[in-house]
Amino acid sequence: MSAVDQAAGLRQWAGTQCTPEAPRAHAAPSRGTPAGAPPRTLVVVGLPGASPDQARRVVTLLEHWAARGQRWVSDPARWRVVPLAVTSPHLPALLDQQSRWALWVGSDPDAFRRAFAVLRRLHERQGPRRLLAVHAPELPRQGLLNNLRQAAWGCLGIDLLVMAA
């Protein structure tokens, strides 16, 4: 199966998973934190576990982005990564308290379906409408990430920000 056929198949599958209600507006982007400010919190859904090792994967990615010149990251050590299960009873409270949210996207063959399922659950639970896609640096923007971004917006009204080169 060619990459074009696979991408079309993924988009078609995502289209069957769309909810009938119209997309909701998303929150405005957050602003950078000045030097000396408290740590920035990034709530991450979709991690394959809530261990400190999983949160470290996200910090490593922030370090990678900072080294590649992404100024919004600033000092990666100032980020506090909070893994959160999409089923957590704390989701509504955290929505009111936290403005920075991310979705972990794996690089395995089932990553699209798993990430889209997390986004769909967030949508059902009135979750955040803007998330940063956090993923392995070698995952290219072409293919999985673009398809996921398009399906998130087209089906759920969720703005998935992709930083891949």
Automatic annotation (TrEMBL):
Residues 1-39 are annotated as: Disordered. This is DUF2868 domain-containing protein. It comes from Halomonas pelophila.
